[in-house]
Amino acid sequence: MTYRAPVKEILFYLTEVLDAGRISQTERFAAATGDMIKAILGEAARMSEEVLAPLNVPGDLHPAKLVDGSVQCSPGYDTGYKVISEGGWAGMSGDPKFGGMGLPLTLTSCVGEMMSGACLSLALNPLMTQGQIEALEHHANDEIKSLYLPKLISGQWTGTMNLTEAGAGSDVGALRTKAEDNGDGTYSVTGQKIFISWGDHDLAENICHLVLARLPDAVAGTKGISLFLVPKFLPDTDGTPNVANNAHAISLEHKLGLHGSPTAIMEFAGATGWMVGAEGGGMAAMFTMMNNARIGVGVQGLSQAEAATQKALEYAMDRKQGRSPIEGGTGTILDHADVRRNIMTMKTLTASARAVILDAAISVDLSRALNGDDGQVQAARGAFLTPIAKAFGTDIGCEVADIGVQVHGGMGYIEETGAAQYYRDVRVTAIYEGTNGIQAMDLVGRKLMDGGVAAFGLLAEIRHTAAIAEEAAPDLAAFLAGAEASLSATVRWMLEAEINDRFAGAAPFLRAFGLTLGGHYLLKAAMAGPVRMPLAEFHIRQTMKQVDGLCHAACEGASTLYALDADALSA
Questions:
Q1: Contact partners, residue 531, CB within 8 Å, separation at least 6
Q2: In the prediction, which pLDDT does 215 show?
Q3: Which residue in 40, 227, 351, 563 is a FRET match for 168, CA 20 to 30 A apart?
Q4: Number of structural domains in the chain
Q5: What pTM, to 2 d.p., does this model score?
């Protein structure tokens, strides 16, 4: 099967469901007209289908490898990355002052879906660079910006994010990497970081590591963490990478999937670095990178859901097995009710994830482009949607890829069909950039610190969709309104509950919110294009039936989870 970039589907949701035209009506993004968006998506689709997609299987079969201290990438990745960098795809949203295109995150996310759907391992490289660009634009001093941003935006250099250590994963405040002031504006960074995506490679002339470290007199916890920019090669005065820094990949992880993406253990041995942002402000600066990366990781989950759906549907339309139970059928397994249920589930969940993610990106763009209260409302809306976009998007990626294997039957378990690669590749997206459990806890914790204002704002939008659909689809409108009522009651419960009781129900709450938003978007899509009504009906009448149960589970509290002590659990 050849991957097909879903340009028409993306454009439909942008224009007919999410009203993304609001972005180009702002002064900041006025250049991102409908015609420009179509042209960019068309070119990105061509690159994804013709250049990146052929690299997906070879990257899986021939992983990156560490040879004599340097990483050699999968065959063909050099050509693929050259096309990415020369096309300016890494710097799409970068500041034009440093060579970027200044395009909205929404458009970058659409391109990211196509690139990741074609070859997730390689597309992860520019995603990390885009996050670093964002962090440096917001927190670096002018000297660092002028030297590093043009190189990162052009793709000549790439970026990484170095948080995790063997003893400091989700608890970042426990990290032990240290930095000592050299007295000349530089710092010596020493420590070891693990799980560093694209920590070393041979595709670009330099690799720029953003490293969290602690100064000798820093306070304990996250408030004592600072951020440092540590390049693989130290640039000279004109920006040419020159002397090798003491920053090395000492090992590559052997992973379930994403074989073409080198995941390194990085050793910093007195490596020269420069502080980014204020002393002790490392987490604030890194979160700038992580927040956008979380939407980007949601895009990765979506991309594998789309690719897995395409492959499963093609297989179902070709595979003949058993007698057709319907008159005038195709004679293939697509005629069978269970296969149809699987395909409909894949399509509706993929569409739901796409809409949630793009809606989050639109709010982020509007928050940057609008002033005053309007900008603040969009910022809060985008912040609330971000953990849903990341967790729901990647959960759906895993779920849909798993269903894709099932549709293939025994052939799905055979590597040659390619169905299993989507599941292996997507599985980590539910773990990195903050596990989905942490995203859910963020949703019921920090994201409800506004008293539920952002949550209730989104629920009001869902109620509005149900109201305007009453005439065209009264039963679906009623189901959607019922789910919204259950969610509203759950938000009110969360606001009154103790924090650990909230955490206990965080995952079902996030799932319920994602599914209900999916119904909201799919019903809007059906009203814009009636041919889509069966998809909305399937999701709302069947999949979304889970929402009431999920909301009940979300309000159960933590007591049952602790009813068995460790000894009883292990008995």
A1: none
A2: 95
A3: 563
A4: 1
A5: 0.97
Residue 185 lies in a domain: no
* Backbone dihedral angles phi then psi of residue 147, each to the nearest 5 degrees: -85, -45
Q: Count Cβ atoms within 10 A of the Cβ of residue 184 and give its class: 0-12 exposed, 13-18 middle, 19 or more buried.
A: exposed
Mean pLDDT along residues 329-352? 97
Give the residue from 506, 543, 551 showing the smallest Cα distance to 521: 543
CA distance 529 to 16: 9
What are the b/e assignments for 498-524, b being 16+ CB within 10 Å? eeebbbbbbbbbbbbbbbbbbbbbbbb
Share of the chain above pLDDT 90, in %: 93
Q: Which amino acid is at 124?
A: L
What DSSP letter does each residue of 397-460 carry, written as one string?
Answer: HHHHHHHHHHHHGGGGGSGGGSHHHHHHHHGGGGTSSS-HHHHHHHHHTGGGTTTTHHHHHHHH
Please check whether residue 72 lies inside any domain of the structure.
Answer: no
* Catalytic residue check, 433: yes
Q: 472-477: which pairs have CB atoms within 8 A and are 24 or more residues apart?
A: 472/527, 473/523, 473/526, 473/527, 473/533, 473/536, 473/537, 475/541, 476/519, 476/523, 476/526, 476/536, 476/537, 476/540, 476/541, 477/523
Residue 418 lies in a domain: no
pLDDT tens-digit series, residues 385-430: 999 999 999 999 999 999 999 999 999 999 999 999 999 999 999 9
Within 8 A by CB and 6+ apart from 563, the residues are none
Average pLDDT over residues 484-509: 98
pLDDT for 558: 98
Q: Which residues contact 388 (CB under 8 A, 6 or more apart)?
A: 356, 360, 439, 443, 510, 513, 514, 517
In a domain, 394, yes or no: no
Mean pLDDT over 128-133 rounds to 95
Place of tokens 């917001």: 138
Which residue is catalytic, options 113, 306, 399, 433?
433
DSSP class of residue 50 equals I
pLDDT score of 259 more than 90: yes
Domain enclosing residue 542, as ranges: 436-563
pLDDT of residue 1: 65
